[in-house]
Structure formats: C-alpha cells, structure tokens
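Progress note, sequence design subtask.
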C-alpha cells in the first residue's frame, strides 16, 4: 500500500470520533452562548414555582388540571426562558466585535449559527424536561415527558421569533421586548383560538371539542408540524438577512 493511500485512510474520521467532535462542538458553543444565564434563569423559575406553591398552600384549591399545569408550569416558563436564552445571541457578538470573525471563518455562516441555535434548542428542551418533571411531582400529575416535548413547540417558535427580531433590531433588550410582547399577545387570544387547530399552546391531552372529533390526533400533528415549519422559516429568513453584513458590523 502506497504512502498516499495510508494517509487518506488515516484522515477519515470514524463515527465515534465524529460524534465526539460534534458533542464537543455543541458543548463549547453552549458555554460561549449561555455563560451564567442558567443561574438567573433557574433562579427566576424557582422563585415563580415557590410563589405558586405558597399560594396553593395558604389558599387550598382542588388542584391543577392537566391543561392548567402544562401551560402554567411548563409552557409559559419554557417560552420565556427561550426568549431569554436567545435575545442577546446576536447582540453579544456585535458588542464583542466578533461578528466579522464569524463572517471570515472557513465555515459558512449558516453552519456557525445553526450550531449555536441547535445548542439553544437542546438547552430549551432539557429545561422543559426538568420543569415538566418538577411540576409532575409538586403540582399535578400529567404525562410529563410528552408534556415537555409538546411544550417544546411554542418554545421553539419563541426562539425563532427572537432570533429573527434580533436581526431587525440593534439591541438584545429590544428583541426580547418584541418577543415578550408577541408572546403575551398570543396569550390574549386564548378564548378565540384555544379550541381551534391554530392555537400555539394546543393541549394534546385535552378532550376534543364535543368529545367526538375522529381527527383529533391528525389536528394535533398538523398543528405541531405547522408551527415547527414556521419556526424553521423564521430561522432561515434571519440567516438570509445575515448576508447583509454591513448592517450588523457597524
């Protein structure tokens, strides 16, 4: 076997090495992206849970139903956490004057930002699993694993909305306020849309309207896939706007 052939074989990564490299890349990306955010995020969620628990102790009630527990203890905190983790994703790079470095790397800017967004989505999903598990043991019994994955859809939408808003504005706070405003505007439409296929916080564990909807499962699947596709479209549009680098480097 010739020397070039040996070199070509040794340069090929095994699946194990490729997985280790991808995992290490996500870990480094998460460290760069989040830093001390976890402390503040879980501290705020802990205070929120403590407040609700105190009210439940001193003002006894029949308890939280599946729908109430899912949206109050998992979906709402998860969506706010998604906004918080994403709002300065772009602004921080601009403030540190590292955007030009990202643009000048050998890898496509699409690949660089997708790795960072994947780390955000992974952290958001992990956070939702933690919130759902804690809620199950403290507040109400519900399918907490499926509940966490269902809550990931509105959280992913808020990540995409915040990421897209960050490329239209020049500050993390502005992007965060826009996303929070959209979030509460959607919540204000609960009475009008909660029983429709278009509701962002559609509860898959609730009984269908009238109790005889034979296509309830199909409606849930179409709703979740539709919003995930919407989130993917916003991320893509945000990445496309990055090509106008002069707007963000100045």
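Output:
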């Amino acid at each position: 076997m010739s020397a070039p052939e040996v070199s070509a074989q040794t340069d090929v990564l095994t699946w194990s090495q490729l997985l280790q490299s991808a995992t290490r890349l996500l870990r480094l990306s998460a460290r760069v992206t989040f830093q001390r955010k976890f402390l503040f995020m879980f501290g705020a969620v802990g205070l929120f849970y403590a407040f609700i628990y105190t009210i439940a102790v001193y003002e006894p009630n029949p308890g939280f139903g599946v729908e109430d527990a899912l949206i109050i203890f998992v979906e709402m905190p998860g969506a706010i956490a998604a906004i918080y983790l994403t709002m300065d994703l772009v602004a921080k790079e601009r403030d540190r004057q590292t955007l030009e470095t990202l643009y000048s790397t050998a890898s496509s800017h699409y690949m660089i930002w997708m790795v960072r967004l994947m780390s955000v989505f992974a952290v958001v999903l992990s956070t939702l699993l933690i919130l759902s598990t804690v809620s199950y043991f403290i507040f109400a019994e519900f399918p907490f694993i499926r509940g966490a994955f269902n809550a990931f859809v509105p959280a992913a939408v808020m990540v995409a909305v915040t990421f897209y808003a960050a490329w239209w504005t020049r500050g993390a706070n502005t992007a965060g306020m826009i996303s929070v405003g959209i979030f509460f505007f959607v919540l204000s439409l609960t009475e009008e849309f909660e029983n429709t296929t278009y509701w962002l916080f559609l509860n898959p564990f609730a009984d269908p309207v009238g109790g005889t909807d034979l296509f309830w499962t199909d409606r849930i699947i179409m709703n979740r896939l539709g919003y995930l596709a919407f989130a993917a479209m916003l991320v893509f549009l945000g990445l496309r706007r990055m090509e106008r680098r002069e707007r963000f480097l100045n």
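Residues 5-10 have pLDDT under 50 and may be disordered. Work on this subtask will continue into the next period as scheduled.
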